[in-house]
């Protein structure tokens, strides 16, 4: 039991913030603390079942917590409100990078929930396609295809919002493929 407590404490200290960020990206700040709490409650109960590294497993638990909540409409509304807050906060700044970020956030908000999820897992959470596939519950090959298609849709959405032709706009900081494993 003392070893379990030490392992849990180390895992909590390492993974709480990424799990919270994932919950915010999926359900907004209002539900994030509840999702993190429930995720780590499940982790404590199943401490012996947690693989190394624990983050993909924890994100999978968090995903299931969100799904079980049965509040998909509420999550979507909260997420949209977060995006509006983020874009409103940077309006008025004329810097090019701020405008690019706003366009990217707006384009991301226009995508479907599945596309947003794979992009968030890969770009914001920094998971490889194999790790993201464990979170979503599919094969690594399927995740790479989903990620490729989501990136194409994001690039097209950015280009449409900018009034440009849908030729690969510069969205690489958000959707970097560095560190992907086969």
Keywords:
single chain; mainly alpha; disordered C terminus
Summarize the structure.
With 182 residues, the protein is mainly alpha-helical. Helices cover 75% and strands 0% of the residues.
Task: Describe the model.
- The longest helix is centred in the first third of the chain and has 26 residues, at 2-27.
- It contains 8 helices and no strands.
- The chain is globular, with a radius of gyration of 17 Å.
- Residues 165-182 have low confidence and may be disordered.
- The protein starts with a helix and ends in a 20-residue tail after the last helix.
- The protein has helices at residues 2-27, 29-45, 54-69, 72-90, 96-110, 113-124, 129-136, 140-162.
- Helix 5 packs across helix 8 (140-162).
- The protein is mainly α.
Outline, from the CA principal axes?
A: globular
**What's the rounded overall pLDDT mean?**
81
Structural class by sheet pairing and helices: mainly alpha
Low-confidence segments, given as residue ranges, are 165-182
Radius of gyration over all CA atoms, rounded:
17 Å
Number of helices: 8
Kindly state the number of beta strands. 0
Distance from first to last alpha carbon: 37 Å
- Biggest sheet layout: none
Oligomer class: single chain
Q: Please estimate the helix content.
A: over 70%
Topology pattern, helix = H, strand = E:
HHHHHHHH
Strand content: under 5%
């Amino acid at each position: 039991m003392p070893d379990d407590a030490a392992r849990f404490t180390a895992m909590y200290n390492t993974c709480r913030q990424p799990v919270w960020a994932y919950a915010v990206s999926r359900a907004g700040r209002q539900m994030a603390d509840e999702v993190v709490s429930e995720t780590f409650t499940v982790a404590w109960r199943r401490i012996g079942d947690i693989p190394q590294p624990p983050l993909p497993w924890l994100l999978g638990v968090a995903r299931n917590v969100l799904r079980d909540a049965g509040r998909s409409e509420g999550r979507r509304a909260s997420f949209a409100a977060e995006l509006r807050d983020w874009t409103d906060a940077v309006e008025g700044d004329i810097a090019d990078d701020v405008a690019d970020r706003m366009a990217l956030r707006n384009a991301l908000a226009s995508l479907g929930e599945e596309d947003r999820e794979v992009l968030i897992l890969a770009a914001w959470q920094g998971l490889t396609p194999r790790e993201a596939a464990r979170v979503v519950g599919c094969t690594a090959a399927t995740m790479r295809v989903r990620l490729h298609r989501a990136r194409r849709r994001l690039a097209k959405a950015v280009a449409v919002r900018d009034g440009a032709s849908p030729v690969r706009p510069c969205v690489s900081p958000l959707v970097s493929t560095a560190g992907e494993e086969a």
